[in-house]
Amino acid sequence: MKKILVLLACAAALSGCAPKSNIVQPDSTEGTVAGEPDFDVKDDVEIDWQQASTDAEDMFEDTDEYPYSVDFHFLLEPEKKEIMLVWVVKDDFPSSELAEYADTLIKGFNDMIATQDFSIERSSDTSYGGLWKRYGLSFGIAPESTQDDESTWLISASYPAGTEFVLPSAGEIQKAMDRAESGESAEETASAESTDAAGETQGASEAAAQ
């Protein structure tokens, strides 16, 4: 399976501010119950990245849930606030699963971190989550046999923190796969479509003249 190079235009960076604390003071006439969970949003939560790495491996390497999964790699550059996620999959990974796996990788990691820091927005149908407003993201889905050769990765992309991005749909991925397998570039496809359209227009004009 040939690599799909994802080139998405980056929108203007958004502010990565976390929500302010919303701590409710208990009634002075009532005692605090020992062991009561604290669901208040705090700004100064320190994320346990080692635990996050372990949890992510457990999540993405679960072959019952993700039968094509082989391995997962997480890299963090704390000073640059950049995160890299690489999901290694079987060589027979079908292109029809690529959009779902990529979506799951980015949203799933965000939501897992959000369980540690409640101020991080969870993912939704229209959002990949609040973690990517604070941290830059690089990700890839790589075939097992060539995982060390990034040029063979099935999909990869990088986004600075705060960038609004949208991953390609399953249909867009399939079109790119078809072009890659046929050796035809996007420009060649557009040129062919333009030529066909011009031919149809000329044929219609000649028919009208008769």
Outline: globular
Secondary structural class: alpha/beta
Helix content: 25-40%
Residue-averaged pLDDT, rounded? Answer: 79
Identify the notable features of this structure and list them briefly.
210 residues, alpha/beta, five-stranded mixed β-sheet, 5 strands, 15% strand, globular
Description:
The chain is of the alpha/beta class and 210 residues long. The protein has one domain. It contains 5 helices and 5 strands, in the order E-H-E-E-H-H-E-E-H-H. The chain has helices at 49-60, 98-114, 131-134, 170-182, 186-209; strands spanning 4-5, 69-77, 82-89, 136-143, 155-159. Strands 1-5-4-3-2 form a 5-stranded mixed beta sheet. Strand 2 and strand 3 (82-89) form a beta hairpin. Helix 1 packs antiparallel against helix 2 (98-114).
What are the SSEs and their pairings?
Blueprint (H helix, E strand, L loop, with lengths): L3 E2 L43 H12 L8 E9 L4 E8 L8 H17 L16 H4 L1 E8 L11 E5 L10 H13 L3 H24 L1
Parallel strand pairs: 1-5, 3-4
Antiparallel strand pairs: 2-3, 4-5
Summarize the structure.
With about 210 residues, the chain is α/β, with parallel strands linked by helices. It has helices spanning about 50-60, 100-115, 130-135, 170-180, 185-210; strands spanning about 5, 70-75, 80-90, 135-145, 155-160.
